[in-house]
Amino acid sequence: MEHPLIGDLSSLTEDQVTEKLSELNKKLSIASRMGNGHMCNQIRSAIESYRTRYNAILELARKDSDDKFGNKIDIS
C-alpha cells in the first residue's frame, strides 16, 4: 500500500531510494523502541512505497540488460 502523503517517486535514483530506505528503517527502530505504534505503521507504509520504487528500478535494469544481450547469445 502506497503512503498517501508521499509524492511521485519516479524521479528518484537507486541511490536516493536506498538512502531514504536506510533513513526510514532507522526511524522505524526509534519509533519501535519508544512504543509509538501509530508512527511505526506510518513509517512502514512509507517504507513500502520506497521498496515498490526500488523494485521497479531493479526490474527496469534487468529488462535493459536482457534487451542488451538478448540477440547476442545464440544457444542453438
Oligomer: single chain
**What is the averaged pLDDT score?**
86
Instruction: Figure out the total of helices.
Output: 2
Low-confidence stretches: none
What class do helices, strands and sheet pairing give?
mainly alpha
* Main β-sheet description: none
Query: Helicity, in percent?
Result: over 70%
Query: How would you spell out the order of helices and strands?
Result: HH
Report how far the terminal alpha carbons are from each other.
Answer: 44 Å
Radius of gyration: 17 Å
Q: In what range is the share of β-strand residues?
A: under 5%
Report the count of strand segments: 0
Shape: elongated
Can you walk through the features of this model?
The protein is mainly alpha-helical. The chain has a domain at 14-64. The protein contains 2 helices and no strands. Helix 1 packs antiparallel against helix 2. The mean pLDDT is 86.
Q: What topology does this entry show?
A:
Layout lengths: L13 H21 L2 H33 L7
Helix pairs in contact: 1-2
